[in-house]
Amino acid sequence: METVTNKREDILDAALVLFAERGFDATTIPMIATRANVGAGTIYRYFVNKETLMNQLFRQYVTRFLETLRNGFPSNGTCRQQFSHIFNSMVRFTLDNEHALYFIKTHNRPRVLDEESLALYQELLDFTRDFFEAGKEANEIRKMPANALIAIVFGAFIQLHQLVREGAVDETRELLRDYEESCWDAVRAH
Asked: Which residues contact 177 (CB under 8 A, 6 or more apart)?
């Protein structure tokens, strides 16, 4: 049974990397099989098709990300404390799941997501939108559309992560602290 679980996990891991690096359309089942070191037919034992594989992967990582965001969220804390929690949750999630945040960002379109995946993604958006809307209501966050605020923070973080992965920037505690402060400055009310 361990071999079955390992093959399935190898397939999911390979698909995550390839979908994140190449995109859904440019990734083929044979590419995933090669990277996972399994036969292409083995993939079809676990997943009906590439869309099913992608949706399984999407739900798995959106669920993990939501759990990371919700775990220890300071509901009664200040807006700044909540923002810090969200930012540090992104850092933790990315450290544990290197390609996952970029994968989520680039594969959240209805064209390939099924209803279950879309509903789960909506739950993730609602969590972050609720934070920004509450911050705007308290006059602590800029009066901008929540989606724009999400794009500022998540987009900037994903770009930083990409620079770290490429070796263009060293990820240090100081860099993350300063980057968090810069992101906060970008969305806070002045």
From this structure: none
Closest CA to 100 of 7, 20, 31, 18: 20
Give the tens place of pLDDT for each residue, 12-65. Answer: 999 999 999 999 999 999 999 999 999 999 999 999 999 999 999 999 999 999
pTM attached to this predicted model: 0.90
Q: Which of 48, 51, 50, 57 is nearest to 29 (CA)?
A: 50
Which residues are within 8 A (CB) of 85 and not within 5 positions of it... i.e. 6 or more apart?
A: 69, 72, 73, 74, 77
3 state DSSP class of 78: coil
* pLDDT tens by residue, 71-117: 999 999 999 999 999 999 999 999 888 899 989 988 888 888 999 99
Other CB atoms within 10 Å distance of the CB of residue 75:
9
Give the three-state DSSP class for 141: strand
Q: How far apart are the first and last CA of the chain?
A: 57
Q: What are the tokens at 72?
A: 């220890």
